[in-house]
Amino acid sequence: MTDVIVVGGGPAGLACALELRQRGVSDVVVLDREERAGGIPRHCAHQGFGVRDLRRALSGPAYARRYVELAERAGVDIRTETMVTGWSRDGSLEVTAPESRESLCASAIVLATGCRERPRPARLVPGSRPEGVLTTGLLQQLVELRSPRIGTRAVIVGAEHVSFSALLALVHAGVKVAGMATELPRHQSLPGAALGAALCYRVPLWTRTVLTEIRGLPRVEEVELHDVSTGRTRAVACDTVVFTADWIPDHELSVTAGVDLDAGTRGPRVDTALRTAHAGLFAAGNLLQGAEPADVAALTGRHAAAAVARWLNQGDPWPDRVPVVCHPPLLWISPNAVSGATPPPRHRFALRSSAFLRRPEVQISQDDRVLWRGRLRKLVPGRSGHVQADWLRGVDLDGGQIGVSASGTY
Amino acid sequence: MGAGVVGAAVARELSRFHLNCTLLEAGPDVGAGTSKAHTALLHTGFDAKPGTLEARLVRRGYELLSTYAPQAGIPLARIGALLVAWTPEQHRAFPRIVEDAHANGDVAIREVGVEELYRREPNLGPGAHGALDVPDEGIICPFTTPLAYATEAVLNGCELRRGVRVVGVERRNDGGFELQTTAGPIGTRFLVNAAGLYSDELDRLAGHSGFTITPRRGELIVYDKLSRPLLNHIVLAVPTATTKGVLVSPTVFGNLLVGPTAQDVQRKDDTSSTAEGLAYLLAEGKRILPQLAQHEVTAVYVGLRAATEHTDYQVTIHAAEGYACIGGIRSTGLSASLAIAEHVRTELGSAGLELRPKESAATVRMPNIGELSPRPYQQAGRIVCFCERVTLGEIEAALGSTIPPADLDGLRRRTRVLMGRCQGFYCGARVAALLQESAA
After folding, report:
1. pLDDT for B46-67, tens place per residue?
2. Rounded distance between C-alpha atoms, residue B232 and residue B249, angstroms
């Protein structure tokens, strides 16, 4: 039996495997279904990867290569084109590889299966079903392969960090961007990114705007945009629509494992040591929530490795946990369960809101007892705010679920 | 004329005889119109109007396809249907439905009580008044079926020409027809019109005007595979005059689908989904199977039924001219397809088409793309499409098949690539490149 199998060879999975080897775990296997390990950053041609984990600024592909190199050099067995398709009845992994189909079992399993952007059908956008409707993930790979499927004039749906990555990819491919549409009152990226887009590429940002219909066959001809504040509708000509962000964890193996999911993150519920409900089953990276930057995902992988190593060495009983749930307008908190005083990755909880909140007061409470109360500078949809973990000591592990609420002006 | 499920079935039927047969398709592929976008059920015909041609052909077609599908590798499972009454009024319709089912060739049907209904479908929404159990209703692969027919026809010498539109039909003096097409003139002694939504227009070109098609739009929502365990049977609604109502059904691919809507539209290419239609289906899905609301939607698709002003199929054989018109085949066309083909072949025989059977005719075994029997990835392989577990070997086989795909949609229908929850987020670029390479 293998010591540890890590499912998914993106930043979180590779960082976890690397850390496990550095902690002396002898037998660490990473299963990755892609032709090359490295995960999503492989296709992100822009800079800015690796600042928080590798202490350097790299392009996405260089960052992905770096992790593969580090892991291989540390003795991690990375198997590509190897996909876990499900679980056998005895709890082992059913694995398809180019020349084999086998059941693999391990003392510990780490799920690091990442997340994806919701595509158009999942968002229930009506209209025709033409060629030219993409997600950022698909767009970046099409650009990489210089595919003729990319058009000449695009509308971007969303205005988060990743939406600006889509913008960069489109500009790089010579595509004119007609505009970016977001239902929210302003964009959610860093001020510099938005200003840069506006100045360098003259891309208008349409706020309070919803894409209500796609028209054209066989290729997109136009989209209908609805201005929520004025109630007006207009058509914008384009041959490409890129749906960005609106992440959902790739949680199939978590669901089929039978562990409970968090209603907010849609990822497996994990405690601060990144343990799922099943003994020996851990989760890390953007499977926990969609989506954090790659380096943050990698740090959660590293964090999980510590708990995995402890589990292998000491075999402590798998703890019960108290769920942590969010109240609107908060969407989720991650990690979302507490089972002891182990601090979460980076000693902080990540918190997301569906609305812009300026100086929100955040309150964490359990059974009418306030565990923590404090002000954050701001919460921006699609970006994590952070709450320190010093309230963990006050949690009653036999008590009811922990609630997180926030109030603040928009 | 027309390589939908009906035209392809007729071509297959005729290709087993010593005939020169050509199958013309205006679109890019076999089964790429109405045939690809419906509820994908194999109907027993229990609810057809007794005495109609439709009732007879659906019943016969059900028997023929039940035998053919396993031989040809078409995914098919007779999982049974539960027709649920949600109001006392719907419940009062049961005796008539049972009576019709008996009249339609004694289709097995029996009423089950509320308790049994909820025992067999524990996740069903509250408020059911009773149900009819129709154990022989089935689910079938809508993509493989027409492809199997067309492939068998081609293997037996039928010429398939895609992207060829018929724009004029002239009668020759010596009998037979001269077709004007976008690829030049084509002569034939006998002509079969299986043009689906366009069958009325071709009927007029041929000098007749038996009916007018008013497309009836049906929108459907496909839910994530993770929802599949919620349901065991096809859950049907009590039919009305215009529609069989919204149903919830497993698919052979392991999803659940909800639909269809029913709305008459003007244009024969208006396969757009609508905000109202999707909202209605979401609400219906949630009512019938409340837990669906917690699941992701994987796909939305829209089909146009070839509805006419008549209630029955419009199948007319003009014996003296050697012309057969197959019109008004609506949602039951897939179930009836082999019987329609048999019927048309017989009638054409009576009309003077010489039918000498071939001593040996090729049969087909299509690649399995359903979840009902083992798939290639369960042996080994390079999985390209992760969501649907499609291997490189399957994609290459489809690209090199007897009727290769003309576009991504064609590859999707042959292998399931890009049909899954990510809609190409992971593999879309690679799959497109594979298609492009094979075309080059």
Report:
1. 999 999 999 999 999 999 999 9
2. 8
| A100 interface with B at CB cutoff 8 Å | yes
Rounded Cα–Cα distance for residues A36 and A99 (Å): 17
Alpha helices in A81-160 (DSSP H): 136-144
Q: How far is A196 from chain B (nearest CA, A)?
A: 27
Q: CA–CA separation, A81 vs B107, rounded Å?
A: 49
Measured between beta carbons, which residues in chain A are less than 8 angstroms from residue B300? 121, 124, 126, 129
CATH of the domain at A13: 3.50.50.60
CB A282 within 8 A of CB A275: yes
Chain A residues within an 8 Å CB radius of B296: 118, 122, 248
> What is residue A146's predicted lDDT score, i.e. its pLDDT?
86
Q: Does A370 touch chain B (CB under 8 A)?
A: no
Would you say the pTM of this structure is higher than 0.95?
A: yes
Could you tell me if A108 and A159 lie in one domain? Answer: no
Structure token digits, residue A224:
């209908």
Classify residue A405 by burial, with Cβ atoms within 10 Å: 0-12, 13-18, 19+. middle
Domains in chain B, CATH or no CATH each: 1-357 (3.50.50.60), 376-439 (no CATH)
What is this model's ipTM?
Answer: 0.96
Cβ of A138 and B429 within 8 Å? yes
B379 interfacial to chain A (CB closer than 8 Å): yes
Is the distance from CB of B249 to CB of B235 less than 8 angstroms?
yes
Torsion of CA B129, B133, B134, B138, to 10 degrees: 90
Q: What is the DSSP letter of A92?
A: P
